[in-house]
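This part of the workshop introduces the protein records we will be handling. To make this concrete, we reproduce a full record directly below:
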Amino acid sequence: MAGVTQNDKTHMVQLVYRLKLFLPLLIFIIVAVFLVVALGRDPNAMPSALLDRSVPEFSLRVLGDEDRYVGQEIFLGEPSLLNVWATWCFSCRIEHSYLLKLSSQGVRIVGLNYKDNGKKAKNWLLEMKDPYALSIIDNIGRFAMNLGVFGAPETYLIDGMGIIRYKHVGVIDDRIWYDHLLPVWESIK
């Protein structure tokens, strides 16, 4: 390198040394930005691959009328909430009173009893009252798996043509209903 003096080389070495001092700070800033972005997301926002698609085909027994099988035709004609629940699910107990409230206001709710004991499920609904227009039994979880269920409770908003319009993971309460579900419900009614 012609024209580069010893003084220039010394300045370059010092500059590289100073930049190395800022490297941990730069890494910290990058990690902090990722954390802020990740923590700013709603942990219950679990998008479904089935949004704006038909409910997957199924044939499942009806809880309380085990000789009766139903399929996706139960979602035709009017909007419905499909609520995934189970007696072993603590959060489902918390959500249950709100589902009763919605049902009493005319919201049609179909239950999906997920990997549960049918006898316990029937007794649970007798004990706590039944918000469901009907509840279907998915003992092995195949239909739930086809829906993309992560666990209970989960709720799908389905329009009168059997198309999934919204998915919520977790408990439904006033905030979730008014901020997320009701606007979609009103748009499809």
